[in-house]
UniProtKB/TrEMBL annotation:
Ligase among keywords: no
Organism: Jiulongibacter sediminis
Region described as Disordered: 69-106
Domain of life where this protein originates: Bacteria
Keyword Transcription regulation: no
Keywords, in A-Z order: Capsid protein, Virion
Pfam families in alphabetical order: CotH
PANTHER family: INNER SPORE COAT PROTEIN H
Biased composition (Gly residues): 70-87, 95-106
Name listed for the protein in its UniProt record: Spore coat protein CotH
Length: 466
């Protein structure tokens, strides 16, 4: 039995006294086990034992943050002990596959919440092993706000496996098969339940490093017994393992900005590592050079100085992919959902949060990059340069003739569909109060709409890049 408490001033308890602890599963000296945590041919199962006390702490905190209690905004909610299956109604008008409509709203860097929700303690069960005193917190912006007000228990969340180590030294440096943190995306506003995964896979297949993902069935005990909360996408955390895994090191600064890059404001560049150094000179220089008057007075000098601090080639490839698939909830539409990593002196763009990808929206930037506002200088200024624009166009061509070839993407969609179908609408379906689907047909229609979107975007991009 894991010790429940320990004086913080006493020596740390050796991990070996924790029941079930092995270095392979719980220790921090092993490499991340991607095959186990992010399998591509099966769906894992994880059980989270929050308990009533932790859930009530979350409710109190979120009520304070959001201004309303859980489920008081109306919608698809229900109490944790609610049973039954998916409704059989038709998808709402205007939604190709049915699903949960987040509503309107325009803008850039607008955060609904003044801070992140609090962490609470929980235990995690996976493959007959248990992790005690794991940090659990809700995450997200509009997805969390709408889910919370509607009372949908399929909430977006994050796990932090050694978050509670100061209070419980027995779990110091605890890991989950080499991972310290994991993010769980509930497919908010995505009736196909696979956009998060599909977009990340497409980025990596086309040469843009992006987080690893996998599907997982999630069960949570909110204090009234374990309930099935449906199929989530587990997403690798960028500053935990992704950067080191795909770039070979993580010594440089990692930022999670909420900035349009029009001007530098330190508070808009959340530093995820090297915090004691408090050195923001790399991103400050990027913003200064991007917006330098040399762009108008000496274009070659401007490009040369910009390329010394920022991987423009990499960004233009990212932009070609992002605009081809249509990922509106990203830079150019919203001033968030990206990371910057200083890899050996050159800042690299890392995409993040793709649940809204592969869907049309009035905030989408057109493929031709016409009419892009100067509010988004990293796009509008590059698009104004003939050489950069031709490189971007060539990248679109490479993408549609490679990773985005229709039969390839359809096979990826079919594989995902076959993996998760039984856990969405089959033998073990998502149920009312724990799903964003509005009916048993929502999932099927969502998958069909996703395939149609791929076909349409392929033809559009093919025509543009000729």
């Amino acid at each position: 039995m894991l010790l429940e408490s320990c004086n913080k001033n006493e020596f740390s308890i050796p991990s070996s006294v924790v029941a079930g602890w092995t270095e392979e599963s719980h220790g921090n000296s092993v490499s991340p086990d991607y095959d186990l945590v992010f399998p591509q041919t099966m769906v894992n199962t994880i059980t989270i034992n929050l308990g009533l006390d932790s859930w009530e702490k979350i409710e109190e905190d979120m009520t304070s943050l959001s201004g309303n209690a859980f489920g008081t905004g109306g919608g698809l909610g229900g109490r944790p002990n609610q049973g039954g299956g998916l409704p059989n109604g038709a998808p709402p008008a205007g939604q190709p596959g049915g699903g949960f409509n987040p509503g309107g709203g325009q803008g850039g860097a607008v955060s609904i919440f003044s801070r992140d929700p609090i962490y609470v303690g929980t235990s995690i069960s996976f493959n007959d092993k248990t992790w005690e005193h794991v940090g659990f917190r809700l995450k997200g912006n509009s997805s969390l706000s709408k889910s919370w007000s509607s009372g949908v228990y399929k909430l977006p969340f994050r796990l932090h496996f050694d978050k509670m180590e100061d209070e419980f030294p027995a779990v110091k440096d605890q890991r989950f098969y080499g991972f310290k943190e994991l993010s769980f995306s509930p497919a908010f506003n995505d009736p196909s339940l696979m956009r998060e995964k599909l977009a990340a896979d497409l980025f990596r297949n086309a040469g843009i490093p992006a987080a690893q993902t996998s599907f997982c069935k999630v069960y949570i005990d909110f204090g009234e017994g374990v309930k099935y909360c449906g199929v989530y996408t587990i997403v690798e955390v960028i500053d935990d393992t992704m950067v080191e895994s795909q770039y070979g090191e993580k010594d440089g600064n990692i930022y999670k900005p909420e900035s349009t890059l029009q001007s530098f404001l330190e508070s808009q560049f959340e530093k995820k590592n090297n915090k004691e150094q408090a050195d923001f000179s790399d991103v400050r220089t990027l913003v200064e050079r991007l917006n330098s008057s040399d762009r108008l007075n000496s274009k070659d000098s401007w490009k040369n100085m910009l390329e010394k601090v920022f991987d423009v080639d990499h960004f233009l490839n990212y932009l070609a992919i992002n605009n081809t698939i249509v990922n509106w909830d990203s830079y150019g539409g919203m001033a968030h959902n990206y990371y910057l990593y200083n890899h050996k002196g050159s800042l690299k763009w890392i995409p993040w949060d793709h649940n809204e990808a592969l869907s049309l929206n009035n905030r989408s930037i057109n493929l031709e990059l016409t009419g892009v506002s100067s509010n988004w200088p990293l796009i509008s200024y590059l698009a104004e340069d003939t050489d950069y624009y031709q490189q971007y166009r060539s990248n679109v061509n490479s993408f549609v003739n490679g990773a985005f070839e229709v039969s390839l993407v359809h096979s990826m969609i079919d594989k995902n569909y076959n993996l998760i179908k039984n856990y969405v609408i089959g033998a073990e379906p998502e149920v009312v109060g724990y799903t964003y689907l509005t009916g048993s047909e929502s999932f099927e229609n969502g998958v069909s709409a996703l395939k149609n979107h791929v076909e349409s975007r392929y033809e559009t991009a093919k025509s543009f890049s000729k």
